[in-house]
């Protein structure tokens, strides 16, 4: 029974880390990153379709993203979706490709992005602590129902705490790397 509880807790904690990675990938660092476009959807024959399914997204250098649609008729739709998004980048089109020049970030904007990253990491820590709480609740319930002996319950709670500490350390490490990446000029 404790193995099932530990497995469920670890799965929840892994999910929190995955969500944090996804949130960090959407943060603009001043470098061209095709993942910046992942959340932008283009209306393509009545379907909201991600840009990477409509075009080749290339990064020829650190400050430029080039989008080359496979169907040239969707070029204007992609351009409009980028303008309507919260990227804050104005696309330029030459009729066959769209170029997104990534401007260098100001110091103030970098600090705002670091603050956002800290918020994302706090959400991940909360999710990890919630997984710990759920696991401990299940262990206590098992102890009260006499399904888990008291010694095993105590050991299981210690394991859950060690697992929590390990995942919190992963979050801190990821945050430190992302802060360094954002603050790098």
Automatic annotation (TrEMBL):
Coiled-coil residues: none
UniProt-annotated stretches for the region Disordered: 137-157
Pfam families in UniProt: RRF
GO molecular function, one term: ribosomal large subunit binding
Localization per Swiss-Prot or TrEMBL: Cytoplasm
Keywords: Cytoplasm, Protein biosynthesis
GO biological process: translational termination
GO cellular component, as recorded: cytoplasm
Domain Ribosome recycling factor: 20-183
UniProt keyword Protein biosynthesis, yes or no: yes
Family affiliation: Belongs to the RRF family.
Role this protein plays: Responsible for the release of ribosomes from messenger RNA at the termination of protein biosynthesis. May increase the efficiency of translation by recycling ribosomes from one round of translation to another.
Name by which UniProt lists this protein: Ribosome-recycling factor
UniProt lineage: Bacteria, Bacillati, Actinomycetota, Coriobacteriia, Eggerthellales
């Amino acid at each position: 029974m404790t193995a099932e509880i530990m497995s469920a807790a670890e799965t929840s904690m892994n999910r929190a880390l995955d969500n944090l990675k996804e949130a960090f990938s959407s943060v603009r660092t001043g470098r061209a990153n095709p993942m910046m476009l992942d959340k932008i959807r283009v209306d393509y024959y009545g379907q909201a379709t991600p840009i990477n399914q409509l075009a080749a997204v290339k990064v020829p250098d650190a400050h430029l993203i080039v989008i080359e649609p496979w169907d040239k008729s969707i070029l204007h739709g992609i351009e409009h979706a980028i303008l309507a998004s919260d990227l804050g980048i104005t696309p330029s089109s030459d009729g066959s490709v769209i170029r997104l020049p990534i401007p260098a970030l100001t110091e103030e904007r970098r600090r705002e992005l670091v603050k956002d990253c800290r918020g994302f990491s706090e959400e991940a820590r909360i999710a990890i602590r919630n997984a710990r709480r759920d696991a401990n609740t299940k262990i206590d319930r098992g102890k009260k129902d006499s399904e888990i002996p008291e010694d095993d319950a105590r050991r299981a709670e210690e394991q859950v705490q060690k697992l929590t500490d390990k995942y919190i350390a992963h979050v801190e490490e990821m945050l430190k790397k992302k802060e360094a990446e954002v603050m790098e000029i």
